[in-house]
Every structure is written in C-alpha cells, then in structure tokens.
Amino acid sequence: MPLNATTTDGLLADARWQLDHLGTDWATRPAEETYQVWAKDRRELIKRVGNIPTSHRENERLRELEGRYAGERIFVIGNGPSLNRTDLSLLKNEFTFAVNRFYLMYDKIDWRPTFFTCNDWEVAADNLAEIVDQVDSADSTIFWPTRFRGALPASDRVYHYNTRNAESKTDAFALDITGGTVMGGTVLAPVLQLVQYMGFSPIYLIGTDVNYSVDTTVKQSGRLLENGVRQFLVSTEDDDNHFDPRYFGEGRRWHNPDPAAMRRGFAACGQAIEDAGGVLRNATVGGELEEVPRVDYNSLFLRISGALVSIVMPAYNAGPYIEETIRSVQGQTHQNWELIVVDDGSTDETAEKVEAVAQHDPRVKLLRQANAGKSAARNTGLDLASGEFITFLDADDSFLVRKLTIQVAMLERSPDVGVVVGGHVRTDESGRVVRARTRPDGAQIDLNDYLGGCPFLLKAALFRASTLATVRFDVQRKWAEDWEFLLRFAAEVEAPVVQHSEIVSRYRMTPQAVAKVNREFAEAHISVVDDGLHRVLDEQRWRKSYPRARREVGIRLAGRLAACGHTADAGAVLEQTEALGLAGEFDYRPALSRSVEFWNGQLAVAKTDKECKALVDEVMEWQPEIAL
Predict the structure, then answer these.
(1) Helix, strand, coil in percent for the chain, rounding step 5
(2) What pLDDT shows up at residue 521?
C-alpha cells in the first residue's frame, strides 16, 4: 500500500501514542485500566486519524504469506455452542484459525489452532492477560490488529494487519490485505480475508451458529441499535451464546450481536471468495447460518486406512530443505507409512539430518550409496519398498497433509485403478506459491498424454505397488528420467491412471531448478521423443504421433531455455526442430512466446512481459523471415 497523507498521519499518530505509553506491559495492568486505554482512548485516536494502517515492513511480512497455502483446506472456527456437539478431535492435523476466547476450549482438546486472532475491542481489553498467556503457550501464528499494536510481546509469530470500515457499498472483502481487511458484521469477516489471501481453499466454517439472544438480565448502554438492543453490553449471568459459559459470563463486556448483519457479512464473504476462485462452506453442526452452502462436518474426514505406504525419496545435497520435507510426511493424516531416503553420495549434511530424525522415528529409513544419480537412487528405494502403495517425493519438495489419506482411500475404493494423480502447486525457493495445477475429477490419463511431455509429477501420484513390480528408472538418464519412466509404465502396465482435483503436493523451484536447464538438459528431453516413442508405439502409430510430439517438445524446451536466459541454445533447438520439416508452414513465434511466458511463471524466473518479448525476439533471430 503506497504511503499517502492519510496513512502517514495514522502511522505518526500511532507512533506518538506508543511513545506516550512506552514500557507499559498491558498484560500485567488491571483489566479495567487496559479497557479504558484501548476500548476508549485508542478508539478516540482512530476517530481522530482514521484506521491505523500497516507499515511498509509489516506489509512486506504479510506479502510473504500471499498464496503460501494454496491447495490446503482450513477450518475457521466460530465460538458458538455447537462446538460442544462437534468432534473437534478430527481437527488435530488440520489447518485451523481460531478467534477471541477459543482458548477456553484448550483443556478439552489436544491440539492448538494454527492461526489465532482477536479483533474485538471488548474481548481484547478484558482478557489481554489470558490471551498473551494462552497464545504464547500454544505456538500458534498470531494475526494482531494494528489498533492493538504494542499489546503483545514482539515475536516472529505475530503478524499485524489492519481492520477497516468499508469505503463503499462494493467494498466488502479485501483480496489484498496489505491495504486492510474489511469489517463486515462478524469478527470472522477479517479472518476469511486473511485465509483467502494465504491461498486456503476450501474454507470450512464451524461454530458459526449465528443465533445470539440478549437476555433481559444483561446490562445495556450506548446508542440503541435497530434490533432494539443498545451497543454495549455487560453480562450478569453465565453465557448461553458460546461454547463456554465463561465466554461472556458474569461481568464480561461485549457488543450487541446482530445476527442479520452477520448473515449478510458471511454471504458477502462467500460471494467474494467464490468470485476469486475459492470455496467457502458452512460445516457448523446446526445453527442458523444458511447464507453459506452447507456441508456435513463428519463427511469431510475420510476413514483412515491401515494400509502401508512406501515413500521413496532420493536425496543429494538437500540439507537446506530435507527436514521440512520430512516434516510434511510426518504430518500426514495417514500415519502408516515408511519413508525410504536414499542418500546419493551427498557432500553436505543431508545424511546427518535424516539420521537425526530417524533416531526418533523408526518409519524414516536412511540408505547411503555412492553418487549414481536420481534414477539409481529411486530404484534402490523401490527395491526396498514393502508398502501396498508407493509414492515418490524429492528431498526439496513436500506433501500436503491429506495427500496419503485422499489417495489411499481412492485406490481402496477402486481396486481396478493402478495410479491416482492429484494437483500440485509450484513455489519459489521461499515457499511462495507461483502456480497451481488442478486436475479434472475422474478423468483418465492414457498413452497419448505421455507423448509430448511428462503428464504428471511423481510426487502428486500414488501407485499401487503391484504396478511397479517390474518397471524401473533408466539409470543412464540424468534428465527426463521421470518422463521416460512414465512412458514405459504406460506402455507396459495395463492399469488405469485416474486424476482427482485435490492439490496434494508442492514443487519447490530452487536455484538448481533453473541452473540445470542447459542444452544437455534439452537434448535429454528431446531424446525421449526421438528414441522412446519407437519403443512403445507400433510403426503406424509412431508415424502418426511423432511429428506433433517432436514439434511440441522442441518448442517447450526452447521456451524453457529462453526463460532461463539461454537464447542461443533455444534458437538452435528451434532451428533443429524446424529443419525436420514436421509442420510445413508453421509459425513458431506465437508458440515460442507462449512457452517462454509459461516457463517464466513455472520456474519463478520473474521476468517482465517486456523482457519475455525481448527473449523471444532474440531466439527468433535464427530465422529472420519468421521474426518479421
């Protein structure tokens, strides 16, 4: 968000306020004093200068989270009484976002929310000491409103965000939270904007009962609202509107709840999320929120199978990433697995890091071999795999938490299916999502899909072990070994390969992913078409399929080389492709432009459109008449 007069005034006013209260530990102050300062003094500050924006540094931290959890689902937790009728144990390995006094539930559950916020004036002021104590011990990531800045101890786990009023009738939901989340009838409206920004989908609501009632014993003050109740409330008895009678129990301050406004707010959030390509569903047990499509809560949790899954992981100098990769396996909702890590002669600390994990988790098995390449390492792992199902994972990538649960269930439901393939996301080195790939549910991948390139990532698939009994990777191949392996698999194994839409894995684009792209890399992929197709197709089908497959691969590899800056090699590959005379009067420029644009995104090279066009111009110099 650019700094203008309004935002600068807000930041300066807040800085002055913070200096006036420098050194105050609000969590240790009496609740009444905290309430007077926050709920009154800082409210007056905001009335005077407007909402307090996030600073440039705070926005930089928020941007690190943009799209980071693409493909993951999350449960956003309201605090209605229906939580007492909800099996919260099912959320132990799920992403969750809790608000306000959800910590009153902690003595009943053995997990803690992934994310937490408190954006209610009364709740924050009256319960700050509890909040600081509970969130600090829970190891949750905290989103803390700028209007409460300074109340929590500084921590890498705390992200500040702004909650602002809508600026127009159409301003109900912020897709870019660095300019502030929009308040909208419910404390969960900013939360839904936060999780949408982080890429979560689908988003499930639980505990959103939306059926508040204000007992006649509740003390009222402030202006009278349209529902006939005043703005500020103080309870004199136990609270029936939340999962715990202490929530807004005797002596607790709260706002006048407006269920009609809440329903409008949820409906607006749902529409905005849908318009942005996401999914919001209401999984609350009961309640009165019908504006968000319902889904049965218990149906969201697949039966956990007892089947053993073997995960084969080749590893070479993966020290910076391998611990995170292993954690993604250990965090699976399906826990019956063995992880076979084959260290392929690493010269860094890869093996030592795996050994340290294996000492505490016998499911993690480390094997060391002299450097022989990724294909040989995978073959070693396959020979030792004992699971009913097998999947692969590179040492710098990761699984989403339900990868094994989803795919094991699919194979168990369909014994005739040999492989299931889900979607994946590509991230840059830091974990920021740059591309997402989903797949059509139920569609099959047949031999034709393998001819022009690798049809799916190994890490996004789960194989029935019986289908891999005889197929192995070509140890002579340094590059394109996965494509060549899958091409032979498709030709030799009569087992349907079925797709599904859930995203199940992450593919990290490290600097090595760009550095490996050279002429040798391109020629290795081209050789799969030139040599591999002959081995799996009869002569008639080869003659029909080869020209198009060869041309597509040539353009794809030229685009990849160009995106990585190797324009001379890209031109040579295109010139070689054109010299084969496979396409007649084919115009290579638009196809190359699309390929460069695609790989610029896939590899997270981050060149501008102008730079990509310049690359295409440079590559096309090999044939001036086409360049014209």
Answers:
(1) 45, 15, 40
(2) 87
